[in-house]
């Protein structure tokens, strides 16, 4: 659940593809994110303290950053920066924790530009 009380979930639509669905606190559909043009393989999802949505994309070896409205903002991490394929994501103490293949756990400090 995001700070704005929206519920953000990964909906698997096939073995190696899916989408992110955002649902309001009342249970109404709000938006859907299906990737940025590539086959999207979301596995893990979490929200940060700024209400951004963070999604691990296993097949593309990257981590997507979405706005609280479910719009693509940036890639936080890509194949060039990750040491493994990201399965799950979590936030704790302003750090992004990734569970990757082969039992690897990666930790990244989240830094925000001043508003």
TrEMBL record:
InterPro entries listed in its UniProt record: 6-blade_b-propeller_TolB-like
Superkingdom of the source species: Eukaryota
Name of the protein this chain belongs to: Uncharacterized protein
Protein's organism: Magallana gigas (Pacific oyster)
């Amino acid at each position: 659940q995001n700070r704005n009380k929206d519920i953000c979930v990964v909906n698997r639509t096939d073995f190696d593809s899916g989408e992110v669905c955002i649902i309001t606190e009342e249970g109404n559909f709000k938006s859907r994110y299906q990737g940025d043009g590539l086959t999207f393989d979301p596995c893990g999802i979490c929200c940060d303290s700024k209400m951004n949505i963070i999604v691990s994309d296993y097949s593309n070896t990257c981590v997507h950053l979405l706005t609280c409205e479910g719009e693509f903002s940036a890639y936080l991490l890509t194949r060039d920066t990750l040491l493994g394929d990201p399965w799950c994501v979590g936030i704790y103490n302003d750090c992004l924790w990734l569970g990757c293949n082969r039992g690897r756990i990666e930790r990244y400090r989240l830094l925000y530009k001043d508003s």
